[in-house]
Fold this protein.
Amino acid sequence: QVQLVQSGAEVKKPGASVKVSCKASGYTFTSYDINWVRQATGQGLEWMGWMNPNSGNTGYAQKFQGRVTMTRNTSISTAYMELSSLRSEDTAVYYCARGGGTHRGMDVWGQGTTVTVSS
Amino acid sequence: SYELTQPLSVSVALGQTARITCGGNNIGSKNVHWYQQKPGQAPVLVIYRDSNRPSGIPERFSGSNSGNTATLTISRAQAGDEADYYCQVWDSSNWVFGGGTKLTVL
């Protein structure tokens, strides 16, 4: 079945970086965008950016420009999201989600990765 | 930047019809997607492109979009529909989410 499986929970200190992985299976990895969305406890969904696994092209929300990097390894159908200069406000659950284009939304989501930033 | 406005909460009696709105400037010209999120779980796409249901989503879920308001309608509400619901659009090369609506089934 189509699924996205994310890496495990992370605890980081302020100023550090975190890299979350998202492994795709059940479909052709390079045929769909991968989006990253985060959610702080008790808060709504916040889109961070997208990546085209075929070309490697990316688009980032302005809020995260300069701090986020999205990459992929097509040989193992895995997408990565790295967030740097972490601060406490980055504590959240991070999701990857398959994008079917602007007319189809995000139809498959990973299980989420909890990132905790604490000194 | 584009903003989507949702009510914080909506209540519906068991078996009745719930309507969750999503307001945005000329949102009728955009494709609106809706997600359901239950506590501790990832979001699930329940409506895409205004009114289309992905496979596996019950026919009780429907959507419409016109003017400045998109609406998610849940007919014959069940206890299992209790969740947070988010609308979403693509605008100026960004995905935008509404703030979310907590649906309570009484």
